[in-house]
Write a sequence for this structure.
């Protein structure tokens, strides 16, 4: 199963790259323009939230890595697509480590504390990576919708060419 999960994540990275390449073409102010009724407000903040989600669930919760840095308000305000790419480079290393660690234990029970719950939360490594990946695609849909609402037509990010 680990080989399949690695291939699947490679597909996700390919799709992410299509989106990031499109976003590089947009003026920085457009990336920061607030679009009403979206949970993270603007394109750049939404994409940073996705990276931080991978870091939290796979890095902090799943791998028990301490000291991971999450985006500060100032970093978000100054972020551009290159900064987001660098965040995802770090995410890619976390995902690689996560896949290697749990390669033969995808359905084992793991638990840990989450700050918004009194009781420890129990899950499996397979659920954590599934959550992070589907979460990315949920927000990818929001990002391309925000771009359209701002007058920019994104490329097809659902049927990206697999290299």
């Amino acid at each position: 199963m680990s080989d399949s999960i690695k291939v699947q994540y490679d597909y996700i990275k390919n799709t992410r790259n299509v989106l990031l390449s499109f976003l590089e073409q947009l003026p920085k102010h457009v990336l920061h323009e607030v679009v009403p009724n979206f949970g993270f407000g603007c394109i750049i903040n939404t994409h940073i939230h996705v990276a931080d989600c991978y870091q939290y669930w796979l890095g902090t919760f799943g791998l028990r890595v301490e000291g991971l840095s999450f985006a500060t308000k100032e970093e978000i305000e100054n972020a551009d697509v290159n900064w987001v790419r660098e965040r995802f480079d770090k995410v890619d290393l976390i995902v690689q480590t996560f896949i290697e660690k749990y390669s033969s234990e995808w359905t084992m029970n793991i638990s840990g504390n989450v700050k918004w719950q009194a009781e420890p939360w129990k899950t499996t490594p397979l659920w954590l990576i599934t959550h992070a990946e589907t979460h990315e695609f949920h927000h990818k849909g929001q990002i391309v919708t925000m771009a359209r609402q701002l007058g920019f037509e994104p490329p097809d990010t659902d049927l990206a060419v697999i290299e």
